[in-house]
């Protein structure tokens, strides 16, 4: 039987959820409200996260440009995404929300600039 | 003649940018924003994670993106901005003394001043870490700045002291950049960070959180080599036989922030010993007329959205002060924190029929609690809360019409 414990983050209460799978059906225990059920099941079936990091940039006021995924991405892909991000070197200027890497790791998610950075 | 401004804002972080906008959009003609760094944004520029702006922009933004949005709003105004300029001193007569490379030492005469110069991190000197002075021990915010702005990873094997949000966020960030984070130690029996950060920064990467633990010893030659943690009892005394030793080259301290207020204490602005910020009324005005305070230099905020809201108000009030110098006398009453409330802002309110936002923190986590706003011993407002945490600032908006007497106001909370 599949069983996983986790903290619900939907509200500050932080219930400790136990998600189990019996005969193909998921069950959530420990939740004080209904929202915990959806969260628990989603975290087991397809947990997703936003990834933020920086990429190298030349001829700008700082040597790093902060970037972010434009949608959430599967949690399992986080380190692969980091590897791709770390391969890039940009040249200033860059504008807020410019696409830095399109369709990262074969997903429909792009890596975009968190801010503008002028040329110096 | 001395250069003159209606409103001078000190600090170009979220607080300073928002208060400059508040002053300008409410009629102040000449507004100057002074920032010592090479660009605007303040602490937001190093907080590259997301989780900013949900209230203010109805969208989840990273720190730099939030700063960018505020900057864009500033560009549509005639607010003057001085970068790489440090305010050295202000006077009770509202002179602002500042310095930069280009103009040297300059004095500007303001009609109102807004102090929005942020906070500092507590350092090793402010907490007691037994052992030698070694390299490899630094504050989490400094390590964050090195990594996110300069691209420099400060260590490979890391332990973090303090489970506030900065510590948690750095645990994830350093892991993503290839460091091994061996754990986060917290002296309290609960974390000071948001649940979301505990889950997404620690649980996601199997980083252990050692609650009720503190540092027994640090050792090494020049660079840090080992940190020993010990469990503590309810009185924060180390328990014998609970030591655990970690081989690490870096110890990050995330043990709290303190408002930066030397500019105000130098002119004897009345300070609140609990927040380390000024005492203010509901106009965010200090005890010196025309000097206002907001943002992290008033009290440490966990949400930038509240910094913006409060600072915009401070700016608006500064503009009103400048435009209507001879104000009507109003009834002023004190606001106090009482049982289980750590502090409350504002400390005074003027009785009129406008709204006031009471901001406060509880002293300990509480389940099923009742917040009471009292005037004298009469309960004026009661609010039920499922859950209260010291890490989350409460923000309760009240129309001041409900306060019908001249008695002091107090805010209390009790379990139900
Ligand atoms: C590490 C960290 C993580 C955070 N994470 C989140 C989050 O996930 N979500 C969220 O909503 N909020 C978060 N916050 C809170 C929020 O970002 C801050 O509270 C807010 O940005 C503070 O704005 P501020 O303008 O008051 O201070 P600051 O940003 O510190 O700005 C103060 C400015 O004043 C300048 N200054 C200081 N002294 C002088 C002087 N003498 N002369 C001229 N300039 C001066 C400084 O250079 C600085 O730019 C976080 C805060 C920190 C520290
Ligand atoms: S289960 Fe409901 S009450 Fe519990 S943390 Fe999740 S959202 Fe909050």
What does this protein look like?
The complex is a heterodimer of chains A (120) and B (416). Chain A is of the alpha+beta class. Helix content of chain A is 16%, strand content 37%. Chain A folds into two domains: 2-45, no CATH class; 52-113, CPE0013-like (CPE0013-like fold, Roll). In chain A, the strands form three sheets. Chain A has a five-stranded mixed sheet, with no helix packed on it. Chain A has a three-stranded antiparallel sheet with strand order 1-2-3, with helices on one face. Chain A has a two-stranded antiparallel ribbon with strand order 4-7. Chain B folds into three domains: 1-121 and 257-327, FAD/NAD(P)-binding domain (3-Layer(bba) Sandwich), CATH 3.50.50; 123-255, FAD/NAD(P)-binding domain; 330-416, Immunoglobulin-like (Sandwich), CATH 2.60.40. Chain B has helices at residues 14-25, 63-75, 140-148, 165-176, 195-202, 262-265, 304-323; strands at 3-10, 31-34, 50-52, 61-62, 80-82, 86-90, 95-100, 104-115, 119-121, 137-139, 157-161, 180-185, 209-210, 213-220, 224-231, 244-247, 250-253, 257-259, 291-293, 332-337, 341-345, 348-350, 355-362, 366-375, 378-388, 394-399, 409-415. In chain B, strands 1, 2, 5, 6, 7, 8 and 19 form a seven-stranded mixed sheet that branches. The chains are: A alpha+beta (120), B alpha/beta (416). Chain A binds chain B through residues 6-9, 11-14, 49-54, 56, 61-64, 66, 68, 75, 78-79, 82, 96, 114-116, and chain B through 38-39, 45, 48-50, 60, 62-65, 67-68, 147-151, 176-177, 194-196, 198-200, 203-204, 386-387, 389, 392. The complex binds flavin-adenine dinucleotide and iron/sulfur cluster. Iron/sulfur cluster (SF4) is lined by residues 8, 10-11, 13-15, 31-33, 35-36 of chain A.
């Amino acid at each position: 039987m599949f069983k996983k414990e986790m903290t619900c983050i939907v509200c500050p209460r932080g219930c400790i959820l136990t998600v189990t799978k019996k005969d193909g059906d998921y069950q959530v225990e420990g939740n004080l409200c209904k929202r915990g059920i959806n969260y628990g099941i989603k975290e087991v079936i397809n947990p997703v996260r936003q990834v933020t990091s920086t990429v190298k940039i030349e001829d700008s006021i700082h040597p790093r440009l902060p970037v972010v995924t434009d949608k959430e991405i599967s949690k399992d892909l986080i380190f692969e995404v980091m590897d791709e991000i770390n391969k890039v070197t940009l040249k200033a200027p860059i504008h807020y929300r410019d696409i830095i890497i399109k369709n990262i790791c074969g997903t429909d998610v792009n890596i975009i600039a968190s801010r503008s950075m002028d040329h110096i | 003649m001395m250069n003159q401004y209606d409103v001078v804002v000190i600090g170009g972080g979220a607080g300073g940018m928002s208060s400059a906008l508040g002053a300008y959009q409410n009629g102040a003609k000449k507004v100057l924003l002074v920032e010592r760094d090479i660009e605007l944004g303040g602490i937001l520029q190093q907080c590259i994670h997301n989780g900013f702006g949900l209230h203010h922009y109805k969208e989840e933004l990273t720190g730099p993106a939030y700063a960018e949005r505020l900057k864009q709003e500033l560009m549509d105004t005639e607010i003057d901005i001085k970068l790489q300029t440090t305010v050295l001193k202000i006077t009770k007569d509202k002179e602002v003394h500042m310095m930069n490379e280009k103009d040297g030492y300059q004095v500007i005469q303001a009609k109102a001043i807004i102090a929005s110069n942020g906070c500092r991190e507590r350092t090793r000197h402010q907490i007691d870490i037994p052992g030698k002075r070694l390299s490899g021990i630094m504050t989490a915010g400094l390590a964050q700045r090195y990594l996110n702005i300069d691209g420099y990873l400060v260590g490979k094997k890391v332990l973090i002291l303090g489970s506030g949000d900065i510590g948690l966020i750095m645990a994830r960030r350093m892991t993503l950049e290839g460091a091994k984070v061996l754990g986060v130690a917290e002296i309290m029996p609960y974390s000071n960070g948001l649940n979301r950060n505990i889950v997404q920064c620690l649980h996601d990467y199997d980083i252990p959180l050692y609650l009720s633990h503190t540092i027994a010893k640090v050792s090494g030659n020049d660079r840090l080599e080992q940190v020993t943690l010990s469990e503590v009892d309810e009185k924060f005394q180390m328990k014998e036989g609970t030591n655990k030793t970690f081989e690490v080259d870096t110890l990050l301290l995330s043990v709290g922030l303190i408002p930066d207020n030397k500019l105000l204490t130098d002119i004897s602005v009345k300070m609140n010993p609990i927040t380390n910020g000024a005492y203010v009324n509901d106009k965010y005005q200090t005890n010196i007329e025309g000097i206002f305070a907001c943002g992290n230099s008033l009290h440490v905020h966990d949400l930038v959205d509240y910094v913006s809201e409060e600072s915009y108000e401070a700016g608006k009030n500064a503009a009103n002060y400048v435009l209507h110098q001879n104000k009507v006398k109003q009834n002023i009453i004190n606001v106090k924190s009482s049982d289980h409330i750590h502090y409350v802002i504002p400390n005074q309110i003027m009785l009129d029929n406008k709204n006031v936002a009471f901001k406060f923190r509880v002293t300990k986590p509480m389940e099923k609690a009742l917040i009471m706003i009292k005037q004298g011993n009469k309960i004026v407002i009661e609010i039920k809360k499922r859950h209260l945490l010291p890490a989350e600032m409460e923000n309760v908006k009240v129309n001041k019409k409900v306060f019908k007497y001249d008695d002091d106001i107090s805010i209390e909370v009790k379990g139900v």
